[in-house]
Amino acid sequence: METLLYISLILVAASFVYLHTALRKIVVKNEANVILRQDYIKLGTSIGGAALFSLLAMLGLILSRGWPLSGGEYVMSLVGSFIFGLSFASLYAAFGLNFYKPNLDVSLLKIVRIVMYASIPLVIFFLGLASEGIASHLVYPLANRISFTEGLVFPGDTAQFAVAFYGILIVSGAVIVYFLSDHFFYKKFKRHGIIDSTFYVAFPAGLVGARLWYCYVLEFDRYADSFLSVLKVWDGGLAIMGGAILGIVAGVTFMLVRRKYVNIRWAMDIIVPAILIAQAIGRWGNFFNIEVHGDQVSAAAWNFLPSILTNNLAFSSTSGPADPGNIYLPLFLIESATNLAGYFIIAYAVGKGLRKWLSLGDLAMGYLIWYGATRAIMEPLRDTNFEYGQSWFSSFVLIGIGVLGIVAFHLYDYLRKKKGLEPRTYETV
Fold this sequence. Notes:
This protein is mainly alpha-helical. Helices cover 65% and strands 3% of the residues. The protein has helices at residues 2-28, 37-65, 71-100, 106-134, 165-189, 196-218, 220-223, 240-258, 264-271, 275-282, 284-288, 307-312, 331-350, 362-378, 389-418, and strands at 145-147, 151-153, 162-164, 296-298, 326-328. Strands 2-1-3 form a three-stranded antiparallel β-sheet. A two-stranded antiparallel sheet has the order 4-5. The longest helix is centred in the first third of the chain and has 30 residues, at 71-100. It is globular. It starts with a helix and ends in an 11-residue tail after the last helix.
């Protein structure tokens, strides 16, 4: 039955390739504001294929492992995987049409946006439902890497040429931020690709910053006598705070030099808050690595979570299994949700609701304040094995920089206005 699993996974990937190709052909028809019948057929076929093959992949997984699922577990796993594939493919299609085909008919674009936003909770819910069906049959702690030669690799095991799920999640979050930012640049400048080079500079710089911060700020005693050990990235060790700082600095510097026609304060307000989305996604790497959690708490207080989460949260990479009936406080989940909420609050509640009182750059500084406050609250809650006083202190530095930045931007605009120079705004930039 493993053949069914592998063939289904290949067909799932093929469905998304076909979906991407169909979307690309629709998008390049710049003059068309409608979707033709044959395009609907292509989109529907690829979305339906993704759903069907997701179900078959789940069935292949169950049968190949010989798991004795009950009737209810079969229903949850198969229905969940089918609707997850359907909703995820629908989200992909709606995202592409909304962000890359903005000249669609207004009524059609409204439907596309409804599908896009409605698909997000459906993806989350039915992924949880699918996992619930097989949760009691999985091995815990869950695998956190995949090897090209050995397959799934579990925490504590060694393997060559293994790709960590943490890395996959970090890259995925960065790509989403790119597409989101590219959309807003397109709305302003009517062309895509303006931030491509910035992304190619800022993302690697962020990875370097994350590694350096971990090695020479958080774990200085460990790496001080062995400088080249910083290059051993396969041993793990990234710090999001360092990645955010160096990534922002590199991106802003590059744009100042190579994209002088773009108002840097406006660009910062578009890109920097979106980093919270990447951080929200990246935090799930801690879940797979069973790390960066709090002390033990009662599992019953968290039984609203899918079983696959609570089962894995009963393990720690440093403290071992939790006591019976307990799990480790899922700080990764709390911070992920907080970061996601932070983006929408900064970009929409503040960015839209308070626009007439804002100066360009305020939203970027809002990111520093939000992220700094989040880490200031989360850091003391961590298990002592993952508690870093440097990060807690740095959190207040970020908050201070954010506050000073807002004051500086408003003061600068005030002085320009006093000189008769009208400050640039979101409408005039």
